[in-house]
Amino acid sequence: xxxxxxxxSYNTGIERIDQQHRRLIDMLNxxxxxxxxxxxxxxATTMLADFQNYAEQHFCLEEELAEHAGIHRSTNWLMHxxxxxxYRKRIHELGQLATSKPDESxxxxxxxxxxWWTAHIGGADQRLAENLLRKTPL
Length: 138
Ligand SMILES: [Fe+2]
Ligand SMILES: [Fe+2]
Hints:
- This protein is mostly helical.
- The chain has a single domain, classed as Four Helix Bundle (Hemerythrin (Met), subunit A) (Up-down Bundle), CATH 1.20.120.
- It has five helices and no strands.
- One fe (ii) ion (FE2) binds near residues 62, 84 and 124.
């Protein structure tokens, strides 16, 4: 799978969010570059740990910012939080698959992570940033 190239449509204009997004994409690119040929279980386990822990930190930051801006009860935010919940659920499922089918789990993880992060950063996170900047201009 090709690495993800950062492009301007991923920038939100909110530095703390952009920094974390860049780090997530960098982490993902390391896994994409190293491939899955060797040690799929180890690879799946590392990916799961990285993308659970750091994603939680990141979701917390977005939640905090939404709350601070007073938009955490808006439909827009609730839909956004729903995407985060879906991510958690999918990561949990792929984690369960890792013990019985490490190869399949590692492959599915890589494509899910690549798809989900680029779609979410380019979609829901852009809308969140627009709403945040409207409420609390930098
Ligand atoms: Fe985000
Ligand atoms: Fe988000």
